[in-house]
Amino acid sequence: MTVFFTADTHFGDPRALRFDHRPFPDLDAHDEGLIAAWNAAVGPGDTVWHLGDFALGPPPERIAAILARLAGVKHLIVGNNDGPATLAVPGWASVAAYAEIVVEERPLVLCHYAFRTWNGIGRGALNLHGHSHGKLGPMPKQYDVGVDPMGFAPVDLPTILASRRRRAPRG
Known about the structure:
single chain; 171 residues; Purple Acid Phosphatase, chain A, domain 2; 26% helix
């Protein structure tokens, strides 16, 4: 079992195509491309922490259908664009604004937003976040795990750590 992280998928949100210049011809291709990339990386027994802005715009039944198509056990850390429909769909293993977990013996602080400081920073804890779509300058021990800076599939911790040694492609 592998633990993966992602953020800012913005399923059903046409703004993602304009503001983030994602390489899809339309919103349907965007959503299908992200689903395919997710399922190519994540297996049924894997865990995915989605750090916010899962979907915005589609009706609850469309959000539920997208979530059901995504592999793995899925946890949501709520983002500013996650409305009641996203929070209420069945299929989330958990829904929270913040979480502290340990992966590969590394403490992680998970939130949609980047922090200036966080619990355990002096003991090696990392802050994983979304929200900024790769537009914040890097800070030590802090990583934007969104689809814009990390590529369109969820990523594991070794990939996140390696992203500082080489810039991940945007698409």
